[in-house]
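Quick illustration, no need to memorize.
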Amino acid sequence: MTEPTCEEVAAAITKAATQLRDPDEDLRTRWRAAQTLGRLGTANAPALSALIVALQHGNETARRYAVKTLISFGGVDDRVVDALIGALQDDFWEVRSDSIDALGDLGARPIAPLSEDQVRRVVPALTAMLLNPEYEQWQILRALGKIGSREAVPALIQALTLAEDEDVADVGWISFALGEIRDPAAIPVLTEALQRDFTEPFVREHIQEALDKIEGEEVA
């Protein structure tokens, strides 16, 4: 099987980019266009650029498809990270939600995860959303836990301190994130949280699991 020429690749990128951004195309066609750009984008900068343009300027469907496709790239390009960070402020919660998950998945990849410099940009963008009621807190906390950076610990400690006894779901996810990060700096606030009068007993189990992970890491 012969390799496509540069002209053929360019034509495929142009066609897929046009289909992805065209609101008159059906959903299946636009999803296939996004997949095409994802396959080409691993080796072709124009395909990557087309997906980023779709994420920044396409309609809601195109933006969601762009997010889901960008995370399939073999390596994490700075332009992808910056575009996903920008999408955290999207007007549609579905795009914001997909972008939170995408950043968490990129940070958790065993091969070619986020670089240290990228983590230093991603974590503040996510932690800045923690106290905003417009966002799903558990989703942000799950992403931070997947990334596993100690950069997030001060914000997580603050969130746990401010959480009410009735905020059992948030406390559970904060504990999960702290347990995944395994920073000993979280031990005092988690220990204190064990003494609180939460309305659901399962919350203490999550807190204890986080403590066990951190203390086990210290022993190791």
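The chain has a mean pLDDT of 81.
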